């Protein structure tokens, strides 16, 4: 594999770390700025909303310059945002830093996927893209727990300073290793937006919002949930995040494997199991052993939905997938924002730190209902398309 893929994977690792590490240091950040845990949850919601807005805008703007220059620009934005978070004198400034960093997220993965695929032979394109995304997955096994540990021992500002340095490494790697490919062909924006006339595209994004949101309703507040309810020390949260990351890694692999064979059945099973497991987590969160078992299962089930949902929206928007794909990356993060906000609402209402698990279960169950609707509409569309062909064939049969 080309070394340029390593540079892209490093960038993905940094982005994955900064997105998720905030959950491990949320109590420390809230304590330093003197805000409540639900209020600090806006650092998750704000980042997610930034991705939602930035992904389609920067993906479209990225067609005006070469892909390499756009990747360098995005890594620069990422560095500035994390440096601002590390040095923030007030909560509002840190929130701005999180939003600035988030603008690089969606476009980096969208443009980076195109670059990764262009670096290898056609038969290896999927492997090249998965290698870049492996940086995001590994971030949840190494980067997030490591960043959480550093934040608890040396302070959360050091964590975000290190993440900014990871961005510098990624930028230098892109500059040195990614070949200049010239300016991409101008996209037909009208054609790209036409994909959103398909109700299936909206259903797919809604499933993404709700399914992924189900996971984040619980995980956003995992630090206070595990320390105040399960009885773990702050240091124990680090190892719980490792378990969650391992679950994500395995779920992503299995989801990709089985989605190729039976996409909708895979979604049905994972969303139903995710809803049930989140509901169960309300009880298992009170036990250190059971919580440690449940967390990787949530990670696996949550991320097993990613490949089928991503493939489904690409299939439904096959004529103009670029903007729809970027929008779906935004949809994942809208799920994060919605879940973090709803989880904060139920905690602030006095229902306790396990109450976001009920919210997550409800979100995942709603995604399951939408997947049934999407499958029904897809079958009806296929049947309608096949009917004229069958009717046309009948006279031919009669003539023999």
Automatic annotation (TrEMBL):
<dbReference type="GO" id="GO:0005886">
    <property type="term" value="C:plasma membrane"/>
</dbReference>
<feature type="transmembrane region" description="Helical">
    <location>
        <begin position="102"/>
        <end position="121"/>
    </location>
</feature>
<feature type="transmembrane region" description="Helical">
    <location>
        <begin position="330"/>
        <end position="352"/>
    </location>
</feature>
<protein>
    <submittedName>
        <fullName>MFS transporter</fullName>
    </submittedName>
</protein>
<feature type="transmembrane region" description="Helical">
    <location>
        <begin position="358"/>
        <end position="377"/>
    </location>
</feature>
<feature type="transmembrane region" description="Helical">
    <location>
        <begin position="128"/>
        <end position="148"/>
    </location>
</feature>
<keyword id="KW-0472">Membrane</keyword>
<keyword id="KW-1003">Cell membrane</keyword>
<feature type="transmembrane region" description="Helical">
    <location>
        <begin position="154"/>
        <end position="178"/>
    </location>
</feature>
<feature type="domain" description="Major facilitator superfamily (MFS) profile">
    <location>
        <begin position="4"/>
        <end position="382"/>
    </location>
</feature>
<dbReference type="GO" id="GO:0022857">
    <property type="term" value="F:transmembrane transporter activity"/>
</dbReference>
<keyword id="KW-1133">Transmembrane helix</keyword>
<dbReference type="InterPro" id="IPR036259">
    <property type="entry name" value="MFS_trans_sf"/>
</dbReference>
<dbReference type="InterPro" id="IPR020846">
    <property type="entry name" value="MFS_dom"/>
</dbReference>
<feature type="transmembrane region" description="Helical">
    <location>
        <begin position="42"/>
        <end position="63"/>
    </location>
</feature>
<feature type="transmembrane region" description="Helical">
    <location>
        <begin position="199"/>
        <end position="223"/>
    </location>
</feature>
<dbReference type="InterPro" id="IPR011701">
    <property type="entry name" value="MFS"/>
</dbReference>
<feature type="transmembrane region" description="Helical">
    <location>
        <begin position="70"/>
        <end position="96"/>
    </location>
</feature>
<feature type="transmembrane region" description="Helical">
    <location>
        <begin position="262"/>
        <end position="283"/>
    </location>
</feature>
<dbReference type="InterPro" id="IPR050189">
    <property type="entry name" value="MFS_Efflux_Transporters"/>
</dbReference>
<feature type="transmembrane region" description="Helical">
    <location>
        <begin position="289"/>
        <end position="309"/>
    </location>
</feature>
<dbReference type="Pfam" id="PF07690">
    <property type="entry name" value="MFS_1"/>
</dbReference>
<feature type="transmembrane region" description="Helical">
    <location>
        <begin position="229"/>
        <end position="250"/>
    </location>
</feature>
<keyword id="KW-0812">Transmembrane</keyword>
């Amino acid at each position: 594999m080309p070394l340029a893929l390593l540079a892209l994977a490093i960038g993905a690792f940094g982005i994955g770390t900064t997105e998720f590490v905030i959950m491990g240091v949320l109590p420390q950040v809230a304590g330093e700025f003197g805000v409540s845990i639900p209020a600090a949850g806006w650092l998750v919601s704000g980042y997610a909303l930034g991705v939602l807005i930035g992904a389609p805008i920067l993906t479209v703007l990225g067609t005006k310059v070469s892909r390499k220059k756009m990747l360098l620009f995005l890594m620069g934005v990422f560095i500035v945002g994390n440096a601002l978070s590390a040095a923030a004198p007030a909560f509002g400034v840190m929130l701005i830093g999180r939003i600035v960093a988030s603008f690089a997220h969606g476009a980096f993965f969208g443009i980076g996927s195109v670059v990764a695929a262009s670096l290898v032979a056609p038969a290896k394109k999927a492997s090249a893209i998965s290698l870049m995304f492996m940086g995001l997955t590994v971030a949840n096994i190494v980067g997030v727990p490591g960043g959480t540990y550093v934040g608890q021992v040396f302070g959360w500002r050091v964590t975000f300073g290190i993440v900014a340095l990871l961005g510098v490494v990624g930028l230098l790697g892109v500059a040195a290793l990614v070949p200049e490919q010239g300016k991409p062909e101008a996209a037909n924006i009208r054609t790209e937006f036409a994909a959103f006339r398909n109700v299936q595209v909206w259903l797919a994004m809604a499933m993404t919002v709700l399914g992924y949101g189900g996971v984040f309703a619980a995980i956003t507040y995992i630090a206070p949930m595990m320390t105040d309810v399960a009885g773990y020390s702050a240091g124990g949260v680090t190892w719980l995040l490792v378990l969650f990351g391992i679950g994500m890694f395995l779920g992503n692999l299995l989801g990709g494997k089985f989605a190729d064979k039976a996409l909708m059945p895979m979604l049905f099973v994972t969303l139903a199991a995710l809803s049930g497991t989140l509901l169960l987590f309300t009880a298992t969160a009170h036990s250190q052993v059971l919580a440690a078992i449940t967390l990787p299962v949530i990670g696996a089930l949550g991320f097993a939905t990613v490949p089928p949902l991503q493939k489904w929206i690409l299939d439904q928007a096959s004529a103009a997938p670029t903007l729809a794909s970027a929008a779906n990356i935004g949809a994942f993060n809208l799920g994060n924002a919605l879940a973090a906000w709803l989880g904060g609402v139920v905690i602030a209402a006095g229902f306790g730190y396990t109450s976001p698990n009920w919210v997550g279960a409800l979100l995942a169950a709603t995604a399951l209902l939408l997947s049934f609707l999407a499958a029904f509409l897809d079958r009806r569309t296929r049947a309608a398309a096949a009917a004229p062909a069958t009717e046309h064939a009948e006279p031919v049969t009669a003539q023999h």
